[in-house]
Design a protein that fits this description.
12 strands, Rossmann fold, 7-stranded mixed β-sheet, 622 residues, binds S-adenosylmethionine, alpha/beta, 47% helix, 25 helices
Length: 622
């Protein structure tokens, strides 16, 4: 065994030319940290090389056996031309065993490299046996096959099953030496635990995960959690590891894009798992919302839904590129409406009716809740009706709105409708995103016209494409060429949930106001609020969702520059200057879970004060 190998061989101490040393064919190390190599080089220059490298002669040169890091440090980061070495005459197998044993002694070995090194030792010890050598092409494969056979015999015996004689023979032949090898490791361990808990990291995890694990020196649990994350969502995995300096970015998720500097290695396995769980949940939700609206809606469902939202037939026809008569036909003769109603009357559930008819669930709710009071609608939807100004931002109800960056809960919209509008009122959503406002309006019998930069005619025909261009703000109703809507075409409520300053910039399209500078962002609202005032009914309300923006990342609260921040009070001032009177400010707290424990302790250390509050500012015309 390698432990005794050194004493069996003759070593000669010498000083040799670094240029004459060739790499070892048995070196499997994949990552050399340059900073650490520099540190090592500096220490070698200060104190000399404490442990010589091991080489063997090959023609008129040398082949490396052990000490690749030391050689690289000297060769690449010092002026030294020679290095102290132990020269040993060793066969290939002996060289391999020395290399494997030396490798495992290293202190800076990552968990994956340690597993690789153990497999290498096991393989080097057994490779002369032809039966073993035929068990696979690579060392780790051979080790896995052998340990698998041993485990299978062990399990069968434990359960009292009869074991095939060939398998029994193999097990008897190898079990003793395998146990010995594992007992003799620098840190002895049981072969079974290696096979069940360690080897899968090397054999079953993709190379991408392994590379990150090695590069960041992750332990086994962190590596497992990282593999789980990769499986849950490749996107989140890339985000966490690509900018290894930063945690992932998700507004409704766990951390904001501009969070403090965290390296994946500073996250515990638990924290990585937490990210994986949330990513998996998000992926499932995406699937759900995709399933809800996809494949694209039928023309009948589109027209029926738009009509129920109070969108005029002309606009429906223009949006769907059908003639007015076709649109009118569907509106007046909706077989869909009959079918939905009949099924509901038979007691079929709303999700089932929705699935059966291939139409969105909120549209079915609009029929299921017909004739009910707002209060009854809250109850039927299983939502509490809050009588105080504290509406949670966390209670996303997946039945309403698509999975969208910055998606807000339907309950929050429903409360706004309840307190500030009446049945049949017209609600206007200028930046509708995932469509939670039109969906909630369907369930609460409000009309709703909604707009967004992003055009999704197949799944969200009710959200009309419109860009609020900061250079030239135009009111989208009525269509170009005519003057602004009169009377019933004017909104009773504007529900306005724009992208917050700097938040999720990379998740919105390039024309989004998220990419504006602080000055341009404020100017945008300064010009839009008066437009809202001009084109709404006399008694209209505005409900404006936003949050304080402070650049608090990594900064102590006392050192923040308020001149760089945007506060709710800034928006309030702009609203007031545009002729809106503030009547309510509703607190919409977010869960603090989005801050990982690690970030929290960092913030505590720095005296950094984060933001978890969103606010809904309600105004009316002065
Ligand atoms: C916070 S999201 C709205 C989310 C929505 N309330 C929901 O819950 O699904 C903001 C939306 O504003 C849109 N947007 C950003 N800038 C815009 C612009 N200049 N004109 C129109 N829409 C814009 C984005 O595409 C995004 O969908």
């Amino acid at each position: 065994m390698s432990k005794t190998l050194h004493s069996e061989l003759d070593y000669k101490h010498s000083v040799i030319d670094v240029k004459k040393i060739d790499p070892s064919p048995y070196q499997h190390r994949r990552h050399f940290d340059e900073d650490k190599l520099r540190e090592l080089a500096a220490s070698i220059q200060r104190e000399g090389l404490i442990e010589p490298i091991i080489v063997r002669p090959k023609s008129d040169r040398y082949e490396m056996i052990a000490g690749e890091r030391r050689l690289r440090a000297v060769r690449d980061f010092t002026e030294l031309e020679t290095i102290q070495a132990q020269i040993v005459i060793a066969s290939n197998l002996q060289a391999r065993r020395i290399a494997a044993a030396e490798n495992l002694q290293r202190e800076d070995l990552s968990s994956i490299e340690t597993i690789e090194a153990i497999a290498e030792i096991v393989d080097a010890e057994l490779i002369e046996d032809t039966q073993y050598a035929s068990m696979g092409k690579k060392p780790a494969n051979r080790v896995k096959t052998l340990l698998g056979k041993l485990d299978s015999v062990r399990r069968s015996e434990k359960l009292g099953y009869e074991v095939a004689s060939e398998a029994k023979l193999t097990s008897n032949k190898f079990i003793g030496s395998v146990q010995e090898i594992f007992k003799d490791l620098p840190k002895p361990m049981k072969w079974l635990s290696f096979y069940l808990n360690d080897l899968p990291l090397l054999m079953d995890f993709c190379e991408n995960v392994q590379d990150i694990s090695i590069k960041h020196n992750l332990n086994k649990s962190q590596t497992r959690a990282l593999a789980k994350l990769k499986e849950a969502s490749d996107g989140e995995f890339q985000r966490l590891t690509a900018h290894a300096q930063r945690p992932p970015n998700s507004e409704m998720g766990y951390v904001s894009s501009d969070s403090s500097q965290i390296n994946v290695r500073d996250l515990s396995a638990r924290e990585i798992e937490d990210i994986a769980d949330k990513a998996a949940k998000k992926e499932r939700q995406t699937e759900l919302s995709r399933a809800r609206v996809s494949p694209s809606l039928s023309p009948e469902a589109k027209i029926f839904m738009m009509n129920r939202l109070g969108i005029p037939v002309d606009r429906i026809a223009a949006r769907l590129k059908v003639n007015r008569k076709t649109a009118l036909n569907y509106v007046h003769n909706s077989r869909l409406f009959q079918s939905i109603r009949e099924l509901l009357e038979k007691g079929v559930s709303v999700p089932e009716v929705s699935e059966h008819n291939g139409c969105p669930e909120p549209l079915v709710w609009s029929i299921a809740l017909e004739g009910k009071s707002d209060q009854d609608r809250f109850e039927s939807l299983n939502w509490g009706l809050r009588t105080w100004d504290h509406w949670y931002f966390n209670d996303l109800d997946q039945r309403f709105g698509d999975n969208w960056p910055g998606q807000i809960p339907a309950q929050l919209v429903a409360h706004t409708l309840y307190y500030f509008t009446q049945g049949g009122d017209l609600v206007f959503d200028p930046m509708a995103g995932g469509g939670v406002v039109p969906d909630t309006c369907l369930a609460f019998n409000r009309r709703c016209w909604s707009f967004d930069l992003v055009n999704r005619p197949e799944t969200r025909p009710e959200i009309e494409p419109h860009q609020w261009n900061p250079e030239e703000l135009l009111w989208p109703v009525p269509p170009k060429g005519r003057r602004a809507g009169k009377g019933k075409d004017k909104p009773d409520l504007i529900f306005f949930d724009p992208p917050y300053f700097k938040k999720q910039e990379n998740q919105y399209t390039k024309d989004s106001i998220s990419s504006l500078s602080r000055k341009e962002y404020l100017k945008f609202f300064k010009e839009l609020f008066p437009l809202f005032r001009e084109y709404t009914k006399a008694h209209a309300r505005i409900a404006f969702m936003n949050a304080d923006w402070r650049n608090f990342q990594g900064v102590a609260a006392v050192e923040e520059d308020p001149g760089q921040s945007i506060f709710l009070s800034d928006y309030i001032d702009l609203l007031k200057d545009s002729g809106w009177e503030i009547t309510h400010i509703v607190d919409c707290p977010l869960s603090t879970q989005r801050f990982l424990p690690n970030m929290v302790s960092q913030m505590q250390k720095n005296r950094t004060l984060g933001i978890v509050r969103r606010s809904l500012i309600i105004g009316r015309k002065k």
